[in-house]
């Protein structure tokens, strides 16, 4: 087993129990390649509201169950790190994980990163800075794109953009996800740090558990600024004016997309079958609908594990590694 990062070590004790997975780990280790589990678990991370996420992902687990001839069930982890620790503890065998957690699952526990997601043909995305106070953070008049307002060039929809404005965040209440989130913490915090802010003392952090919660914290006035992936406003479907009241004023450097990691407990043959089943599923209308509903995924592609190193370096720059 690899040596865990400091971030993982600090969170492991709390996270490893977060999935509450009883009796679903395979008893076969990597050396027992001939044995296959009767049941495997797919760990989902709460990039949006956890309520109903397992049900939304049911078409994925149902398809895998039928294709693999074994029960596949989905479980939502407490946080991003919990999913990594569940794979390391044998409590989950498949993980739909953000980029940093893909890297950690491989580096710490030998999980194989097999797939990465595409969204409208893109394999990277920026984190976004959002505000309910465009008069303070926008150096120009906000412009509308598909019902959403942007300023400072963020309507280009690729990063970086508008980062000269992030120094204004000093003293603000900011909605942030946990430190394992590339878009909800790592990349925006690094941008603040590079703008000369002390991220521990120059902002008042308002913890949130998911990207849509960050959007809503800004919308409701609980925070003046929020971090999320681009464009998390689109997943808040029950608030018609979300794109008008929550304005994106900056985008970070591009982040590699999330993807799928498979536990080294699974035999190479089973890993190949799971990978192919997910690719086949993504190629069907039902699969595209399900993947879009779960994580706004429009396609799946073979992974480039080396592309994840940049996220690890960003985390390291914040002292999280």
Automatic annotation (TrEMBL):
One of its GO terms (biological process) is transmembrane transport. Residues 1-22 form the signal peptide. Keywords: Signal. Pfam families: Phosphonate-bd (PF12974). GO terms for cellular component: ATP-binding cassette (ABC) transporter complex. It comes from the Bacteria. Belongs to the phosphate/phosphite/phosphonate binding protein family. This is Phosphate/phosphite/phosphonate ABC transporter substrate-binding protein. It comes from Microbacterium oryzae.
């Amino acid at each position: 087993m690899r040596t865990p990062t400091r971030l993982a070590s600090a969170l492991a004790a709390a996270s490893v129990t977060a999935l509450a997975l009883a009796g679903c780990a395979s008893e076969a280790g990597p050396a027992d390649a001939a044995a296959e589990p009767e049941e495997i678990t797919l760990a989902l991370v709460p990039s949006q509201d956890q309520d109903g996420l397992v049900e939304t992902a049911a078409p994925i687990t149902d398809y895998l169950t039928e294709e693999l001839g074994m029960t596949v069930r989905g479980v939502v982890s407490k946080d991003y790190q919990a999913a990594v620790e569940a794979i390391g503890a044998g409590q989950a065998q498949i993980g739909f994980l953000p980029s940093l957690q893909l890297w950690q699952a491989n580096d710490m526990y030998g999980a194989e990163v097999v797939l990465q997601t595409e969204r409208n043909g893109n394999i990277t995305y920026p984190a976004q800075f959002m505000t309910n106070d465009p008069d303070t953070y926008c150096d120009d008049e906000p412009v509308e794109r598909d019902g959403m307002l942007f300023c400072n060039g963020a309507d280009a929809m690729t990063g970086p953009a508008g980062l000269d404005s992030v120094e204004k965040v000093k003293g603000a209440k900011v909605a942030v996800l946990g430190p394992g989130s590339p878009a909800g913490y790592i990349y925006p915090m690094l941008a603040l740090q590079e703008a000369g802010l002390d991220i521990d003392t120059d902002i008042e952090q308002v913890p949130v558990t998911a990207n849509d919660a960050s959007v809503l914290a800004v919308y409701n006035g609980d925070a003046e600024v929020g971090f999320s992936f681009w464009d998390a406003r689109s997943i808040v479907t029950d608030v018609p004016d979300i794109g008008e009241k929550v304005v994106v004023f900056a985008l970070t450097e591009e982040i590699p997309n999330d993807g799928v990691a498979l536990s080294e407990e699974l035999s190479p043959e089973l890993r190949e079958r799971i990978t192919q089943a997910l690719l086949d599923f993504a190629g069907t209308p039902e699969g595209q609908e399900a993947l879009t509903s779960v994580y706004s995924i429009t396609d799946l592609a073979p992974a480039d594990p080396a592309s994840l190193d940049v996220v690890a370096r960003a985390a390291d720059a914040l002292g999280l590694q």
